[in-house]
Amino acid sequence: MNKLKELGLPVPDFEVVKNPDEIRWTDKKNEYCGWVIRGSADKERGFSMNCYALYVPKNEVKKKLDELIKKYGNKEVSYIIYAAWKMKKGGNLMILKDKIILEAVNGIFEPNKTPELHMVFMKRENGLPVLQKVVGNKDLLSHKELLEVLELYRKAKINNVVFEWSFNDRGKFGVWDIIPIDIKDE
Fold first, then answer.
1. Any idea where the domains of the chain sit in the sequence?
2. What is the 3-state secondary structure (H, E, C) of the chain?
3. Which tens digits make up the pLDDT trace of 74-102?
4. Which of 9, 74, 149, 160 has the most C-beta neighbours closer than 10 Å?
């Protein structure tokens, strides 16, 4: 989340804690459906960490965080806390050297969920990428939403990454994760 913020991308207000006493409720103005707690390995990316809790009521966050700390520890794990969203649409945006791949679903994009929309764009030096292929529900994203997602490419200016993004039920756009991918140059 810190890297996303450094890139100037739309991320929720969040805080990183090691224990429940450090929680400051940074984003309480946007709390309307609970809180999210995500564990993140301090040294290496925790791809295999199944350490999270979604839509936790405020009065249960400290208890849930204690449970996660007991299970995963707090010496090499930090916990990210932010106000949850009711997800309307979500997906991934993969930015490669020469193309961009967008996948989207209604609701939350989960790891083994089949995308309802799959789009492939050819990158151009100046301007928006050129659409090459569309599979699925091409009306899933409005034109405005599509442009917001593709704006990640322009703002980030990096290759070989996947962004996890979503729109909430109030139309707000946010980015939740950036995942580097190892692509060997041909």
1. 13-83, 87-180
2. CHHHHHCCCCCCCEEEECCHHHCCCCCHHHCCCCEEEEEEECCCCCCCCCCEEEEECHHHHHHHHHHHHHHHCCCCEEEEEEECCCEEEEEEEEECCCEEEEEEEECCCCCCCCCCEEEEEECCCCCCCEEEEEEECCCCCCHHHHHHHHHHHHHHCCCCEEEEEEEECCCCEEEEEEEECCCCCC
3. 778 889 999 999 999 999 999 999 999 99
4. 149
